[in-house]
Amino acid sequence: MSPRSQKLNNQMRSQTLAKIDSAALKVFAACGYHGATMRRIAQAAGLSYGLVYHYYPSKAKVFRRLVDFALTGSLEAMQQFMHASGSAWERMTAYAAMVVSSLFAGDTSLYFVIILQAMTQGRAIAGLPAHISRMFGRYYELLVPVIKEAQASGEAAPGDPAALAAGFFSMVQGLAMLTFQHQGLEERITPALLVNALRNPGYVPRSQSTGRPRPSGRKA
Amino acid sequence: MSPRSQKLNNQMRSQTLAKIDSAALKVFAACGYHGATMRRIAQAAGLSYGLVYHYYPSKAKVFRRLVDFALTGSLEAMQQFMHASGSAWERMTAYAAMVVSSLFAGDTSLYFVIILQAMTQGRAIAGLPAHISRMFGRYYELLVPVIKEAQASGEAAPGDPAALAAGFFSMVQGLAMLTFQHQGLEERITPALLVNALRNPGYVPRSQSTGRPRPSGRKA
DNA sequence: GTCTATACACTGATAGAC
DNA sequence: GTCTATCAGTGTATAGAC
Q: Is the CB of A170 less than 7 A from some atom of nucleic acid strand D?
C-alpha cells in the first residue's frame, strides 16, 4: 500500500483498460453493438471474461465510452481547425485535408464506424440517441458559421449551409466506411474530393469579374 | 385443389410475404441485424411468431432477401439512368435528382439503411460481404465510364473517377441516414448538393475560353 | 395456412477462489 | 487484480395442434 506500488497499480490498471478499449473498438466495429459479445472482446484483449466486468459494469458502458471518445475527439479536432487563423475557406480545406489523412492513420476509421453503429443500433442504450443528436448539433454550430463566411466570400457554394455541412459529413462517414472495408485507398481518396463538394462552381478568384453566370443550371 | 383456389392461395401467400418483408424492413432498419428479433418482426407484421418461419427458413434469409432487394433495385435504377440518352453530365444530374427525390418517397431510405447495416454487421451471414462487394463493383462499372465521359467534356471534376463515384455514393448513403433519423429535410437537401460534388470548378461552358486556371489549387 | 408451446444454445452479469 | 464457474434471461428454430 505504499505510494510506489499504488502508482504501479494505477499504471497497470490503465494499461489493462487500454487493452479492453482497443479490443472493444475492433469487435464493435466489426460486429455492431448487438453482434459483439463481451466474451469476444475479452478474447480479443487477451484477458479473461470476468475481468472485463471488473473495469466496466456493462457492455453498454463499454460501447458508450467508445462513442463518447469518438464524438468528443471529432469535435475537438473540428474546433481546433475552425478556430484557427486564415480565411473561412482555408480553414475548411485544412480541416478536410486533416480528415482525409486521419482516415488512414491508426484506428480513426474504426471510430467513424462506431459512430455509425451508434446511430443505427444505439436505441437500446438509454440516452444515446439524444446524446448523438446533441453532439451533431454542436458540429453544425461549429461548421455552419464558417460555411456562411465562405459563402459570403463566394468560395463556398450557395444554398442552405446546414445542408452543405450535412453533405460534407455524409461523405466523410461514407469514405471512412470504405477505408474500413477495403484497404489501399490512400492514394485514391483525396482532400479535393471533400473540398469540391463545398466549392462554389461559379467562383471567380478575385480579378476578372466578367459577371458571367454560373456554368450550369442549379436546379437540374 | 382446383386451379381457382390455388390461385387464391398464391395470392394470399404473396400478400403475407409482403407483410413480413415490410415489417422486417422497418425492424431491421431500426435495430440492426443482430438487434432485430424474429418475434419483433412477427409482431410488427401482425402475425404469429411461428408463421414467419413458414415463409423463411431463418432470420438470415429474411435479411438477405431485403439486402438483395435493395442492391438490385439500386442497380436497376442506376442502369436506367446511365443507359438513357443525353450527355454524360445530363445523365448524372438526372440520376442525382432521382436519388434525392426517392429519399423522401416511401421506404427508399430504409433500404439504404439496410445496405448500411449489411455492410457493418453482415459478416455473420455467409457470403454476404462478398455479395456486397460484387454488387458495389457493378455500381462502379456502371458509373465510372459515365464519369470519365463527363470528365472528358470538362464538366466533371478531374481525378480518379472511381474516387469521385465513391464520394458520390458516400454522400447518398449519409443523406439517407439523415433523412431516416430526422424528418422534414425535404427542402434542405437538394440534388445540387450531390451534383456539386462531381462538378469541375474550372469548367467554362463552351463560349469564352479565357484559358484562366482553375479558381483554386487542387492539392490544398 | 396459422397458431401455441417448447427444446436448445448463447449471452450478459455475478459470485467466489486464488 | 485476475481467473473460473454458474445463473437467469433471451432468442432462434422446431414440433405439433387446429
A: no
Residue of A185, A193, A198, A206 best to disrupt the B interface, most CBs of B under 10 A = A193
pLDDT digits (tens, 9 = 90+) for A15-36: 999 999 999 999 999 999 999 9
Chain D bases near protein CB atoms (7 A cut-off): 1-5, 10-16
A34 to B35: CB separation less than 8 angstroms, yes or no:
yes
Q: Which residues contact B165 (CB under 8 A, 6 or more apart)?
A: B139, B140, B143, B144, B147
Residue A73 and residue A78: Cα distance in Å, rounded? Answer: 9
Architecture of domain A64-202: Orthogonal Bundle (1.10)
Residue carrying the nine cell digits 387464391 = B8
Pick one of 3.40.50.1950, 1.20.1600.10, 1.10.10.60, 3.40.50.970 as the CATH number of A1-57.
1.10.10.60
pLDDT digits (tens, 9 = 90+) for B131-177: 999 999 999 999 999 999 999 999 999 999 999 999 999 999 999 99
Q: Of all nucleotides in the shown strands, which has a C1' nearest the CA of A45?
A: D2
The C-alpha cell at B23 is 415489417
Residue located via cell numbers 482532400? A191
The grid cell for A99 is 480528415
* pTM exceeds 0.85, yes or no: yes
Q: How many residues does chain B have?
A: 220
Domain range list for chain A? 1-57, 64-202
Number of helices followed by number of strands (H, E) in chain A: 9, 0
- Tell me which of B151, B155, B171 to substitute to probe the interface with A (most A C-beta atoms closer than 10 Å): B171
* Cβ atoms A70, A49 nearer than 8 A: no
Is A173–B170 a contact, with Cβ atoms under 8 angstroms apart?
A: yes
Residue A32 and residue B32: Cβ atoms within 8 Å?
Answer: yes
Distance CA A84, CA A77 (A): 11
CA distance, residue B9 to nearest chain A CA (Å):
37
Q: Is A127 left (phi over 0), alpha (psi -120 to 50) or beta?
A: left
Mind telling me how many Å the CA of A139 is from chain B's nearest CA? 14
The mean-pLDDT minimum among A52-61, A152-161, A178-187 falls in A178-187
Percent share of chain B, pLDDT over 70: 91
Instruction: Look up residue A36 and give its three cell numbers.
Output: 459483439
